[in-house]
Amino acid sequence: MMRAAVLDGPGVISIAQVDRPEPRPGEVRIRLEGCGVCASNLEPWAGQEWMTYPGEAGGLGHEAWGQVDAVGDGVGEFAVGDRVAALSYRAFAEYDLASAAMTVKLPPALEGQPFPGEPLGCAFNIFRRSDIRAGQTVAIIGIGFLGAVLTKLATDAGARVIAISRRQESLDLARHYGAAETIAMHDHWQIIEAVKALTGDGLCARVIECVGKQWPLDLAGELVGFSGKLVVAGYHQDGPRQVSMQMWNWKGIDVINAHERDPQVQMQGLREAVEAVASGRLDPAPLYTHRYPLERLGEALDATRDKPGNFVKALVTFA
């Protein structure tokens, strides 16, 4: 048996004792060390018309890392005891199953460090899709976990990053990761004028929207220069969006939805993230600001929604 979190209804989570899963051919079972809490968890937590309850045991968790505990038939690349990150989908539990093809070994350099692989890999895939080049001005709207990592990657690529976010703590974090300029995200038109002033009215070659709400998407369109690229990294899962197609059309911009669903591409980003963190090129430690045991998952979700103090990312960890 194992403990697993069950979303019983909007704002209601229980900890259940459920059967420990057995790996099928091609799968590994992971004894989890931890799992990150994703902003995409918030809509099910709040309750949406399309949700059904109760959810699967462990079902919101998809940012897992831990040690291989058992292997299924046909798995030769992993052994019991290997420390791994995986793209698995029931990871708010003590154990989860993952396809061996969606699992990557963590090198000794990462021993003892948390590694929520899914969002780290997501950031690297977004960066690749953004086609950022040295000398460009890049605006990043929303400096949470994704926005901070993208700030670092864009800066290292030689771009000038303008970070735009609501909280001063977020703007300070963007500076830590290399942002050249920061703008408080309070007034739509003042932000546009500030970016125009910083770019000589040329606006930005790349704008990455990392919030997943209507206003930041509207703002992103305004900040892209002619023939630039608007990169949608925010997860827009709470309803339809309206866009200014007239403006997008006039500027001749490319609009890139940077969410990857191809498993091979997802794994490419994950492997790139492992290499970058293991080599020291990226230090995500300042982003892991809050940790909770499984029994306090509800508090972790509330903190992800409310962002108290210096909050960036919550991790649910297991003893």
From TrEMBL:
<dbReference type="InterPro" id="IPR036291">
    <property type="entry name" value="NAD(P)-bd_dom_sf"/>
</dbReference>
<keyword id="KW-0479">Metal-binding</keyword>
<comment type="similarity">
    <text>Belongs to the zinc-containing alcohol dehydrogenase family.</text>
</comment>
<dbReference type="Pfam" id="PF00107">
    <property type="entry name" value="ADH_zinc_N"/>
</dbReference>
<keyword id="KW-0560">Oxidoreductase</keyword>
<dbReference type="InterPro" id="IPR011032">
    <property type="entry name" value="GroES-like_sf"/>
</dbReference>
<dbReference type="InterPro" id="IPR020843">
    <property type="entry name" value="ER"/>
</dbReference>
<dbReference type="InterPro" id="IPR013154">
    <property type="entry name" value="ADH-like_N"/>
</dbReference>
<feature type="domain" description="Enoyl reductase (ER)">
    <location>
        <begin position="11"/>
        <end position="316"/>
    </location>
</feature>
<keyword id="KW-0862">Zinc</keyword>
<dbReference type="InterPro" id="IPR050129">
    <property type="entry name" value="Zn_alcohol_dh"/>
</dbReference>
<protein>
    <submittedName>
        <fullName>Zinc-binding dehydrogenase</fullName>
    </submittedName>
</protein>
<dbReference type="Pfam" id="PF08240">
    <property type="entry name" value="ADH_N"/>
</dbReference>
<dbReference type="InterPro" id="IPR002328">
    <property type="entry name" value="ADH_Zn_CS"/>
</dbReference>
<dbReference type="InterPro" id="IPR013149">
    <property type="entry name" value="ADH-like_C"/>
</dbReference>
